[in-house]
Amino acid sequence: MISFLNKIKFHLKAVNQHGVHSPFVFMYLTRCLYLKPKKSTRVTEDVLLKSIAYFNSRTINIIGNEALESKVKSHFSQINFSNEKLDVLYLESISYLQNLASLEKFKLHNNSVILINGIHTKKLAKIKWEELINIAKFTVTIDFYYCGALFIRREQDKEHFKIRL
């Protein structure tokens, strides 16, 4: 019952592309996430697969979901799985971050994105998510309810979005 109420609250505050004033986020939504067909029935997987294609990602790391790594390989043969200059870091759960300093071990660059599944599943997950979106280096943060996206874009002012998918 609590998660249902949280979802209702989220949808009352969230917007679609028409409520977004950032050209970067608007293009990401309209040219990537809102395009059909879906690549997966799981929302977070769909966001990941569409994002890899849209950003033409080459180097990614998936933590906590080996089956998803196989799925990514089947869609994108050019993908390199490593920690070297990551374009995309995917975390199956926010609990894979022991602390916020544990992000430092990943070699992120300007235009890197971190996708985190299940940011609203538990109270501790929501608390960690709130801490992450307040880190200055993540200038664009998007809460999709099912997952969250953290972007490093030095050229953009810090903004947080709640977006309906």
Could you tell me how far the N terminus lies from the C terminus, measured between alpha carbons in angstroms? 21 Å
Strand order of the largest sheet: 2-1-3-4-6-5-7
Helix-residue proportion? 25-40%
- Average the pLDDT over all residues and give the rounded result: 88
Total of DSSP H or I helical runs spanning 4+ residues: 5
Compute the number of structural domains: 1
- Structural class of the helices, strands and pairings? alpha/beta
Explain what the structure shows:
This protein is an alpha/beta fold and 165 residues long. The protein has one domain (2-120, 139-162). It is 34% helix and 22% strand. It is built from five helices and seven strands; from the N terminus they run H-H-H-E-H-E-E-E-H-E-E-E. It has a seven-stranded mixed sheet with strand order 2-1-3-4-6-5-7, sandwiched between helices. The longest helix has 12 residues, at 2-13. The radius of gyration is 15 Å and the shape is globular. The model has no long low-confidence stretch (mean pLDDT 88).
Which descriptors apply to this entry?
seven-stranded mixed sheet; alpha/beta; 5 helices
